[in-house]
Structures are given as structure tokens and as C-alpha cells.
């Protein structure tokens, strides 16, 4: 069996040891090297050719973000960011996921000493990921401006848009929502992400996208131009109501290993909206969202899935497609236009 080769990059020898110990507990993973800064890491990547790199967000000589940008431009490879639980650490981690890091994990802290137990699983997913070269900020902004100008007039038909995503979802959601018009469909999103990062992600989306994006709160009213992101943690996001739809935050067990769960969100949309909704499932590992999207489709909703070639991990969309939940598969760069066209009252001839 070929083991997954990992390079650990962190300026703290203690943290490098904790990461290496957590990874070495899995027989399918081999820690082939360690580096204390990006300069050492660059040489180690050349010499050791690792399959996956774990990268500290804050380091001397060059920040983790700067180094990640260089990796994604010159030698794209799977990277997992290791972050402190600070507002700055959260913001930089979200930016790293946008640049192309596959996943992130928090450093252990009091009350969360066993956080690295998830790391071997995350490394295995990362090793399977399709990593693409970095799209520059200027290219992304140019593409978004062109897409918005191409929309011309748009008026939401009132249908609710529900989106689910996991691994690779940060990059995909930024790409998708930045191409939406300002008065986009009322939108709810479940993205698998640690609780400390969802607020920073919502803020980042709000800065980059024409619509208003915020973390969902209990009782928040759905309306065109409003996008609600499920907070990470112990609450599921649902929507409820008939004419006056609102966000409902409900405590509950993990579903498919996740809270918030895409399935829980989609099932609530199927119940509350039926055919007055559109469901979209994006890149991610596992099958969360598949059965919920099928419920939406059976209730009359239109459903879309991200296609295999544009996914970082073609897990969730494949699971949904395999059971007949996805009506149409499209590459990420065509999904926004399809959703906008589907939900507009102004139809092009």
C-alpha cells in the first residue's frame, strides 16, 4: 500500500510534534519531513515531493498566506491550513481556502485538546483533491464584472435558492456568488466549516459579492438580495413559514457527521417551499445533501450539481447524482448563469 506522504510546516517545534504524532497514528500516512518556515519548506517540497502539506497560517520570514500563493502559482498541491482560534487567524484561514487550500483545522486549545484527531481524515481527503492553479484577484474581479454586466436586467421570481458544499466549497461559493446580481434569489447555504471560521467567511463573501451576505440568525427573513450562511457549531439551519419564510436555528445531533447539515437544510426547503425552490450541491466529501436534494426534486424543485471536472472533491455531487437528485450537472463557471436564468422573471429570447 502506497502511503500518503506529508510535509509538516510550522514554526513551533511543539506543534510540529503534535501534528506529526497525530498523522503517524494512521498507517496510511507517512510524515516525510518537517520545516519551521517557508524557506525550509520550499527546499523540502523540492527534495521530498510530498503528497500533502500542512501549513501554519502565521510564520516568520514569510506568512503562510504568501507561501500558499507561491505554491498555488508555481506547484499546485493539496495544502491543509493549521490555524489559531483568533479573528485574524480565522480571516487568514478563509483567505487561504479562497486561494486554494483544500481544508483547515484549528490548533488544539483548552477544551479542544483532541482537535487533531480529525487531521488524518482531512489529509486523506486532501490527497484525493483536484488542485488547480491560482486565479489571481484581478482575474476574478474581471470575470465577476463581466458576468454581472452580461446579466442585464434581473428580477427574482421569489424562489428560494438552497446551496450545500463542503471540501473546496469556499473557493466554489466565492466563484458562484460573485457572479450573482445584487438582487439575487433569497439564498440559504450550508457549508461544512469549523464554527470559528463561518463568520469570517460570511464577511469575506459580503465584501466580494454584490448581494448582502451574513451568518444566518434565528428569525431572519428571506428576501431577494439576501444570502444567509449557516453558522458552524451545534445548530442546524432550516427555513420555515409559508408566505413569510424565515431562518430557523435548531439544536440537533450531527447528520451525516455534520452540523450544520446540508440534508437538514434541503429537507426543510422541500417541506416549506416545494416547487418554489432551487437546490444546488457543490464540491465536497461524503454524501451529505444527497437525500435532501432528492426530496427537493420530488417536491418539484429544480436541482443542479457541480460536475466532476470542476470539483475539488467529487463526493457530495456524485452521491446526489447517483440517486437521481441532480436534474442537471454543470461546471462551476456555468452554474451561476444557469441559476440566474432559472430564477429570473425576465426571460431572454
UniProtKB/TrEMBL annotation:
User: What residues bear 4-aspartylphosphate in this entry?
Assistant: 56
**Changes after translation:** Phosphorylated by CheA. Phosphorylation of the N-terminal regulatory domain activates the methylesterase activity.
What is annotated as the active site?
166, 192, 288
Question: Which compartments does it reside in?
Answer: Cytoplasm
A single GO molecular-function term is: protein-glutamate methylesterase activity
One of this protein's Pfam families, by short name? CheB_methylest
What biological-process GO terms show up in the record?
A: chemotaxis
Q: Which UniProt keywords apply?
A: Chemotaxis, Cytoplasm, Hydrolase, Phosphoprotein
Q: In the Enzyme Commission scheme, what number(s) does this protein have?
A: 3.1.1.61, 3.5.1.44
Residue span, CheB-type methylesterase domain: 154-346
Domain Response regulatory residue range list? 5-122
Which superkingdom does the taxonomy of this entry point to?
Bacteria
Entry GO CC: cytoplasm
UniProt xrefs under InterPro entries: CheB-like, CheB_C, CheY-like_superfamily, Sig_transdc_resp-reg_Me-estase, Sig_transdc_resp-reg_receiver
Which catalytic reaction applies to this protein?
Answer: [protein]-L-glutamate 5-O-methyl ester + H2O = L-glutamyl-[protein] + methanol + H(+); L-glutaminyl-[protein] + H2O = L-glutamyl-[protein] + NH4(+)
Q: What is known of its domains?
A: Contains a C-terminal catalytic domain, and an N-terminal region which modulates catalytic activity.
What protein family does this chain belong to?
Belongs to the CheB family.
Q: What does this protein do?
A: Involved in chemotaxis. Part of a chemotaxis signal transduction system that modulates chemotaxis in response to various stimuli. Catalyzes the demethylation of specific methylglutamate residues introduced into the chemoreceptors (methyl-accepting chemotaxis proteins or MCP) by CheR. Also mediates the irreversible deamidation of specific glutamine residues to glutamic acid.
HAMAP family xref list: CheB_chemtxs
The protein's name in its UniProt record: Protein-glutamate methylesterase/protein-glutamine glutaminase
Gene name in the database record: cheB
